[in-house]
Each structure stands twice: as structure tokens, then as C-alpha cells.
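Propose amino acids for all 311 sites.
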């Protein structure tokens, strides 16, 4: 059975647990130098219509570890620049014999459109402002490594919730796994529809991070701010920057996270970003293992059928 991984919202807790346990297993095998090649012979397309460093490299690493071949495709150099629609581009890739697609696109819902037309598994690498499921899985694996469980943890998600797919996927995942989610930031960056997300809103930073086990900072998504949602970066820094001083209100063993790319000195100061509490580098490496899990899971772990084998 083939399936898609487009969002966390529609996953059940056992599916999230299965993905996290697969990822932990891949981590142990890769770090022990063992070969994992459950994807040998498969070809996966990496389609990025938006900039990316971590997600793109880690999907490529993940595919390599699984023994898959990758074909890279960026919107910038494609026929979409000649006016081809996304649907026709997806159909073209299907007939190029790609077996799975990993896709990032600035328009929310485009990964669903790809899944409807491609004919094989699609994995979201970031769906507009909507969701970024593998980021949340990597963040959960990172929290599990330090805390042992997600159940009962207090997680403060700080900053630009309005434009953040990372906030949405994390809120769904963490709440399904029993954590308490808090959204912390200025009113202009915490939209009214946040009410539909699982979590409580705090406009005051210190109140929001009080006794938190995890402080997860978000990048200010200037490229998605259509109107003046932010008075000034200086004002944001003064009221919402996470510093070592701010972290004193959190739990004594608080961990600090950021999905990257980090605006150093804005969302976090150097003291917090580079402190032992920071898990930012672990988030990057765990991104590889959860993306291995995602690529394995969408094919249900099934090896590619041998040529000529009956389906
Ligand atoms: N890299 C993450 C994303 O693509 C976070 C960010 O860009 O702020 O959503």
C-alpha cells in the first residue's frame, strides 16, 4: 500500500508513534554504521518551489541512506516559468517514471493537488503556511531524546504563529501526543483562527514561557507578511526575544529549539541559541532520520518489486 504524508493534523496518534519509532530505529542503524537500503531501486523526485537548506539536504541524505535515487527539480529553472500549470507539471513528472515526490511550495494546499494527480506517494516538505509535517516529526524526535516522553510536557511556541507551518504541525503533533501547547507572541502574529489550533494563547513572553519544558522559537516570516503585521523588528526583539534571562522563568532543564533559518539576535540571542539548553543542531540531524522514516512509510516499507514480478 502506498500513502502520502501531507499533514500531521489527519494522522492518528499510533501513526505518529510508528513514524517516530521508525525514525529512532533508522537513527540507531545509521549511527552504528549499518546499511539501510529498504528503498533500493526506487527513484524519488525532490521538488522545491521555495528556498530550503535543511529540509532539502536532509531529504536527499535520507533518500541516499535508504538507497534511493533522487532527481532534483526546482521551480526556478522549470517549464512553470513558461506558463505550465502545477497540475501539468506534476503529471509530467509522473510520466518521467518518478515513484515518489517530495514537494515544497509557497501555496497552501498544493501538496494535496500533487497527491491527487501524481499517482504515487507524495511527502510534504512544506505546504505554504499550512503544515510542515517532517519538521514536527524531527522536533518530536529531538524532544524525546532529551525528555523521554512528550506526554505532559509544556511547550511554548514563540513568535510568528500566523505565518508558520512549523507552528501548525507542531501544535497538532504535540497535542495529539499529550503535551500542553502554548502560543506566545504579539496579537498581530497570533491570528484569530489560532483558536482552531490546539493550544492556549499568551501575549506576554514571560507568562508564556513560565515553567515551560520546551521553548520553541519561530522565524519571523517576512516573505509571507502581506501587510504591516509587525510594528518593527526592534520592538519584536525587545518584547519577544528569547534570551538566557527569559529562560530563567522556564523549567530548570528547559530545552530551546528553532527550526531555522535563524535570524540571530532577533528570535533568539546568542546566549540562548548557543547554550547547552539549545537543541538546534540536534533538530537538524534528526531531520534526516524522520525523513528516512517518511520515505519508508509512504511505501509501507515495501521493497521495489523485481522487474517482471506480478503486482
Ligand atoms: N524552515 C522552516 C520552514 O520552511 C521554518 C522557516 O522557514 O521559518 O517552514
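Proposal:
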Amino acid at each position: 500500500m502506498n500513502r502520502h504524508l501531507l499533514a500531521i493534523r489527519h494522522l492518528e496518534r499510533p501513526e505518529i508513534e510508528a513514524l517516530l519509532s521508525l525514525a529512532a530505529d533508522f537513527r540507531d542503524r545509521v549511527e552504528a554504521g549499518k546499511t539501510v537500503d529498504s528503498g533500493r531501486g526506487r527513484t524519488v523526485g525532490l521538488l522545491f518551489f521555495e528556498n530550503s537548506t535543511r529540509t532539502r539536504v536532509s531529504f536527499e541524505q535520507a533518500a541516499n541512506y535508504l538507497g534511493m535515487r533522487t532527481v532534483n527539480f526546482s521551480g526556478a529553472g522549470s517549464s512553470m516559468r513558461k506558463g505550465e500549470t502545477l497540475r501539468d507539471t506534476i503529471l509530467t513528472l509522473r510520466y518521467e517514471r518518478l515513484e515518489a515526490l517530495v514537494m515544497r511550495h509557497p501555496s497552501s494546499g498544493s501538496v494535496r493537488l500533487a497527491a491527487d494527480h501524481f499517482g504515487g506517494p507524495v511527502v510534504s516538505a512544506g505546504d505554504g503556511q499550512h503544515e510542515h509535517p517532517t519538521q514536527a516529526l524531527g522536533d518530536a524526535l529531538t524532544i524525546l531524546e532529551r525528555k523521554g516522553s512528550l506526554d505532559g510536557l509544556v511547550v511554548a511556541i514563540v513568535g510568528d504563529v500566523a505565518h508558520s507551518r512549523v507552528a501548525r504541525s507542531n501544535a497538532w503533533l504535540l497535542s495529539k501526543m499529550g503535551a500542553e501547547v502554548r502560543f506566545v507572541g504579539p496579537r498581530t502574529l497570533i491570528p484569530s483562527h489560532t483558536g482552531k489550533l490546539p493550544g492556549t494563547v499568551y501575549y506576554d513572553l514571560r507568562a508564556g514561557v513560565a515553567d515551560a519544558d520546551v521553548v520553541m522559537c519561530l522565524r519571523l516570516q517576512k516573505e509571507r507578511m502581506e501587510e504591516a503585521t509587525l510594528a518593527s523588528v526592534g520592538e519584536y526583539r525587545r518584547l519577544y526575544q528569547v534570551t538566557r534571562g527569559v529562560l530563567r522563568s522556564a523549567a530548570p532543564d528547559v530545552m530551546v529549539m528553532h527550526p531555522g533559518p535563524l535570524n540571530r539576535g532577533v528570535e533568539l540571542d546568542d546566549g540562548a541559541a548557543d547554550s547547552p539548553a539549545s537543541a538546534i543542531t540536534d533538530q537538524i540531524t534528526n531531520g534526516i532520520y524522520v525523513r528516512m522514516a517518511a520515505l519508508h512509510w509512504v511505501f509501507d516499507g515495501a521493497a521495489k518489486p523485481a522487474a517482471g514480478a506480478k503486482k
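The beta strands are 43-48, 69-74, 100-105, 122-127, 154-158, 180-184, 200-202, 214-217, 255-257. The chain has a mean pLDDT of 92.
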